[in-house]
Amino acid sequence: MHELSIMQGVLDIVRDSAVQNGISRINKLKLVIGSLTMIMPDSLRFAFEVLSQDEMFREADLQIEEVPAFIRCHACNSETAQEDAYCFVCSGCGSNQVEVVKGREMYLDYYEGDCV
Amino acid sequence: MVQVNMETHLLGANELLARRNRQLFKDHKVLVINLMSSPGSGKTTILERTIEALGGQLRLGVIEGDLYTDQDAQRIEKKGVKVIQINTEGACHLDAAMVGKAYGQLPTDKMDLMVIENVGNLVCPAEFDLGEDFTAVVISTTEGNDKLRKYPLIFRQAKAVLLNKMDLLPYTDFNLERFKNDLDQINPSATVFMVSGRTGEGIENWTRWVFEEVKRKNPF
Q1: Where on the phi/psi map is residue B47: left (φ > 0), alpha (ψ -120 to 50), or beta?
Q2: What does the domain layout of chain B look like in residue ranges?
Q3: pTM of the full structure
Q4: What pLDDT is attached to residue B194?
Q5: Overall fold of domain A3-68+103-114
């Protein structure tokens, strides 16, 4: 349920930045969301549709890059993809002494716009 | 066409305020625990028991988070502890701004331990840093074994996991062995406490551990 407020925050950040850069129309927004976050890309897309009705965002395209989880094993030093979000165990050696290296991302990468 | 690179964290505003809270808690030498669980796991009862055990030794403060009502705050107040109620009015989690504001209404430089009881929810609160020293998550035997695997993030981040309603264990299908195995895969470094808020069973182990954590942050 917090995707709506997160998307509102994203649009506020972009709007502020666009105004500073003399950009009046946004064409594209790119977000990066890891699979281990509690943020659902589909809910973000829905929130974007609802919130992007004004002049600045009407034509904008939302692109979301989803980052799969990767863990690094402290026992055998290998880095492996993590398909189960709940099972933090090295698929190489079975150790549970692992660290999440990818999958916790949630950031606005860039936006593109025009000065009309 | 202009491309503007941002690399801005989506919860950037919250992260900033959480850092500010954390610095305040450090300056005021107060240990802060963010207590989370699903609705009905027994957070408030455990908190009442914790106050009964530690109230004589430590100066306590509580922030209560609920969508509506101040029923939990009233329960805590009866234990003689200063409590601030936050009503999120529909929001599914507390954020660092709400906590910063509520904290200002407590006797900030006269507390050893502050517990933030988050909104009952295993999903959203996990993403919002409040500036706490650590999180403690309550799960109860009546909720079933599947909660750990269904909501791994909140359990992965927890320093302590309390398994509550141990008095009801014989009447449920909760499997202790499976619980331990699952937690070992999700968060092997979590300290586990098996408790019953109703009977008080196991609460002493938890409160003794909390007391040690308070002393570790702020040696008297």
Answers
A1: alpha
A2: 12-217
A3: 0.89
A4: 98
A5: hypothetical protein PF0899 fold (3.30.2320)
Q: What pLDDT was estimated at residue B5?
A: 95
| CATH tag for B12-217 (out of 1.20.120.450, 3.40.720.10, 1.10.10.10, 3.40.50.300) | 3.40.50.300
Task: Confirm whether the ipTM is greater than 0.90.
Answer: no
- Count CB atoms within 10 A of the CB of residue B19: 13
* Gap between the Cα atoms of A101 and A90, Å rounded: 13
pLDDT digits (tens, 9 = 90+) for B94-107: 999 999 999 999 99
Over the stretch A3-50, which tens digit does the pLDDT of each residue have?
A: 888 999 899 999 999 999 999 999 999 999 999 888 899 999 999 999
Residue type, B109: D
Asked if A116 reaches chain B (Cβ–Cβ under 8 Å), the answer is no
- Among the partner residues A31, A88, A110, nearest to B3 by beta-carbon distance: A110
pLDDT bracket for residue A1 (50, 70, 90)? low
The residues pairing with A34 across neighbouring beta strands, listed in sequence order, are: A67
Question: Cβ of A107 and B8 within 8 Å?
Answer: yes
Q: What is the pLDDT of residues B9-47, one digit of tens each?
A: 988 889 999 999 999 999 999 999 999 999 999 999 999
Report CA-CA distances (Å) from B113 to A12, B159, B166: 36, 16, 26
Asked if the Cβ–Cβ distance from A106 to B11 is below 8 Å, we say yes
Task: Calculate ∠ Cα B181-B185-B187, nearest 5°.
Answer: 110
Summary mean pLDDT of chain A? 92
In the numeric block, the tokens 């409160």 are attached to B207
Q: What DSSP element (H or E) covers A15?
A: helix A3-20
Distance CA B212, CA B215 (A): 5
What tokens appear for B217 in the block? 């942050």
The C-alpha of B186 sits at a distance from chain A's nearest C-alpha, in angstroms, of: 5
DSSP state of B196: -
